[in-house]
């Protein structure tokens, strides 16, 4: 049962809420590997990034959720955008700042509290780690953080139920219909979607979906 309006959660309830929003084993996986983190594909930046940035006004503010080693955020800055790079894994934030001096900061998805601050929110291969029960709340926070007419990109591994990959990382593994319905329920307009075959870093083959959505 949620806490009554205006009353703070007890410490135990706060811990339960945090566990529902973020998976400790997944964070631990990235924390351990952060010093050696590189793109497995060898890409300079995510191949979807430039087309997403082309939708935004030059110089606009962009939030990255799950900046990892910082390569996408560095590309945004290179193109003249004001970048707020975030990641829930402290060691990855350190790695990104060491490599690119981004001013990246530690923030989990559920800690986003901005109000009409960003023209774009970029979440490449990051929201796929958000527990499925928490995703509607996180999407609502992303929606609130965007300016009217703002854009959001996210990519997910598709499936039929939440679970862990062979490396132990939690994934929400949604079917496309469920995921699109969640975005529509959060008052996003679906502008583009692409489903394609991909190979995950644990070596398994799985379909992915790219979603580009807009806040009305």
Q: Could you walk me through the main structural features you see in this protein, from its secondary elements to its overall organization?
A:
This protein is an alpha/beta fold and 216 residues long. The protein has one domain: 3-Layer(aba) Sandwich (Rossmann fold). 31% of the residues lie in helices and 26% in strands. The chain is built from seven helices and nine strands, in the order αααβαβαββαβββαββ. Strands 3-2-1-4-5-9-8 form a seven-stranded mixed sheet, sandwiched between helices. The longest helix is centred in the first third of the chain and has 11 residues. The radius of gyration is 17 Å and the shape is globular. 35% of the residues are buried. The N terminus is likely disordered.
In short:
The protein has seven helices and nine strands, in the order αααβαβαββαβββαββ. With 216 residues, the chain is an alpha/beta fold.
Annotate the secondary structure layout:
Layout: H1 11-21, H2 24-33, H3 49-53, E1 61-65, H4 71-78, E2 82-87, H5 90-100, E3 105-106, E4 118-123, H6 135-145, E5 146-157, E6 163-164, E7 170-171, H7 176-185, E8 189-199, E9 205-214
Parallel strand pairs: 1-2, 1-4, 2-3, 4-5
Antiparallel strand pairs: 5-9, 6-7, 8-9
Low-confidence stretches: 1-17
CATH architecture designation: 3-Layer(aba) Sandwich
Oligomer: single chain
Q: Report the count of strand segments.
A: 9
Distance between the termini: 32 Å
Count of DSSP-assigned helices: 7
Question: How large a portion of the residues is in β-strands, by DSSP E?
Answer: 25-35%
C-alpha Rg, in Å?
A: 17 Å
Mean pLDDT equals: 89
Coarse shape: globular
SSE order: HHHEHEHEEHEEEHEE
Say which CATH homologous superfamily is assigned.
Vaccinia Virus protein VP39
User: Order of strands side by side in the largest beta sheet?
Assistant: 3-2-1-4-5-9-8
Number of domains: 1
């Amino acid at each position: 049962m949620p806490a009554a309006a205006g009353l703070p959660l007890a410490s135990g309830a706060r811990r339960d809420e945090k566990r529902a929003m973020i998976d400790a084993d997944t964070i631990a996986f990235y924390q351990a590997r952060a010093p050696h983190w590189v793109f497995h594909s060898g890409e300079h930046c995510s191949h979807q990034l430039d087309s997403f940035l082309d939708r935004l006004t030059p110089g606009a503010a962009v939030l990255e959720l799950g900046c990892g080693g910082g390569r996408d955020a560095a590309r945004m800055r290179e193109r003249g955008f004001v970048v707020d790079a975030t990641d829930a894994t402290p060691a990855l934030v350190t790695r990104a700042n060491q490599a690119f001096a981004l001013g990246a900061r530690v923030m989990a998805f559920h800690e986003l509290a901005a109000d009409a601050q960003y023209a774009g929110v970029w979440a490449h291969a990051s929201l796929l780690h958000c527990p499925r029960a928490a995703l509607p709340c996180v999407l609502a926070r992303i929606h609130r953080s965007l300016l009217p007419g703002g854009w959001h990109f996210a990519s997910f591994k598709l499936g039929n139920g939440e679970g862990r990959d062979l490396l132990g990382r939690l994934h929400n593994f949604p079917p496309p219909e469920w995921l699109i319905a969640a975005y529509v329920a959060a008052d996003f307009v679906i502008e583009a979607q692409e489903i394609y075959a991909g190979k995950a870093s644990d070596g398994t083959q799985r379909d992915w979906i790219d979603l580009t959505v807009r806040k009305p």
